[in-house]
Design goal:
single chain; alpha/beta; 7-stranded mixed beta sheet; 4-stranded parallel beta sheet; 10 helices; 11 strands; globular
Length: 265
């Protein structure tokens, strides 16, 4: 079993780690384009072409499915990706977890990149899945870039700025960019009022990993007396095979994927 994931940068780590936890025996192919990151300010046409290039590089390794572990690419490039690769290669997009967040009744906040915030795509999801629920869209300029480079001071500044514009009475927060899941604990600490019930954070990694397994007709591995053999890890950076970037090791998900006996190559 081989699962590919693509993103502009290290935002694919949460979904890759989720796949690895569900099926440690699966080979993983991580294809990203850090040379052109961030994608948010780019035109939809440019994002589509870059997403196609990332998936083509991953497809050369003959995966069973590919996860588009990027909200921006899912918004702009999913139709083109599915037109080129399906049905031979299942393509699984990433959708902000607005539906489960709104199930509790709200109020809900959605943190996303400036390009996604207020977009017709996100507004449609709010209309379809959060009708009647109070929803606040919060743009987070600079946060994805700060996470990409593990710039702790910049992460803190971007999180504090977004938290200051987030209503204090929210019951749930949607992480509408895959990069944000890498700093979920820091986001939670910034938005959680003292003495209030815990705010629920909703990311997409677990759901998209499970959907990928369903699309290829398999299930999470059952606990076994002996551990399953661990799959191989292949990393593609802007079309070139490489090692997992050092910056990935700043995050729990990156360290999980780099840990032996998960093989490199």
């Amino acid at each position: 079993m081989k699962i590919a994931l693509m993103d502009s940068g290290i935002g694919l780590l949460p979904a890759a780690a989720a796949v690895h936890r569900l099926r440690p025996d699966a080979d993983l192919v991580l294809s990203s384009d850090p040379d052109s990151m961030p994608w948010g300010p780019r035109t939809p046409e440019d994002v589509t072409q870059r997403a196609l290039a990332c998936v083509r590089a991953a497809a050369a390794h003959r995966p069973d499915a590919v996860i588009i572990a990027c909200n921006t690419a899912s918004v702009h490039a999913l139709p083109a990706l599915r037109a080129e690769f399906e049905p031979g290669l299942p393509v699984i997009g990433t959708v902000p977890a607005i539906k489960p967040a709104a199930a509790g009744g709200g109020p809900v906040a959605i943190w996303a990149t400036p390009a996604t915030t207020g977009s017709p795509y996100q507004r449609r999801l709010i209309r379809d899945f959060a009708d009647g629920v109070q929803v606040t869209e919060v743009a987070c300029p600079g946060l994805a870039e700060a996470v990409q480079w593990a710039d702790s001071a910049a992460i803190d500044a971007a999180v504090a700025d977004a938290a200051a514009r987030t209503p204090r009475d929210i019951r749930a927060l949607v992480l509408g960019c895959t990069h944000y899941e890498l700093v979920a604990d820091r986001i939670r600490a910034a938005v959680q009022p003292a003495g209030a019930p815990p705010i629920a954070l909703h990311g997409s990694a677990g759901a998209v990993a499970a959907q990928a397994l369903r699309r290829i007709g398999t299930t999470p591995a059952s606990p076994a007396p002996t551990p399953l053999p661990e799959g191989r890890l292949t990393v593609i950076l802007s079309g070139r095979e490489a090692a997992l970037p050092d910056v990935a090791l700043a995050y729990t998900e990156g360290r999980l994927l780099a840990r032996e006996p998960l093989a490199r190559g």
